[in-house]
Amino acid sequence: MVRETATKPKFVAYQRVSTARQGRSGLGLEAQRKAIDGFTASRGAQVIARFTEVESGKRNDRPELDQALNLARLTGATLVIANLDCLSRKAAFLLTLRDSGVRFLAVDMPEANDLTVGIMALVAQQEREAISRRTKEALAAAKARGAKLGNPNGAAALRRAGEGGAALRATVSRNADQFAAGLAEVVEAIRAEGHVSLRAIARELNARGILTRRGGRWQVSNVRALVGRLDADT
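^ that's the sequence the OP posted. Answer follows.
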């Protein structure tokens, strides 16, 4: 008698968190991992590899996603993500991915097919453009009223706050902690590759296209602050 053995479905997991909008969707890296693991277990599948990207959803050049797609293509595995927003809000990008020949599943909508993903991609891009337009209109209206625009969490705001700035300082510190937590896995990977000095970590962060919390390039000073927060947490 010939005994047939069932082959477990193979998944390649892809996680992404944006440096510009930490936590907007409520899905941090750990939450994405838990969602993917739960979905994988429910399907009796096997995760053969995981890829994590820290990048803005506006950009199309995603080296980790490229590696994930290539591995899925070579092994016949399915790319699995926690939710569709982990990929992009750009319709062209999502439609290109849909037509790449690689199967992919979103945990929040596993029943989605090519047609529904295409429609969702167009809706997502329209939403992104609408948010951008409303933001610009609101800023223009505020400027017309004479409001001073700028970062309320900056150092100048803290100095102006004086004795009443405790709550503001706590907010700034909390935002910095959340940002640092989002980069923990990236910094750990950089250190594992042998880049342990502050200058070397800054060079690697810049080489990977990762921006600081204020959208700038990494220097020794802000890497020191980042590493200090990460080491304090551990």
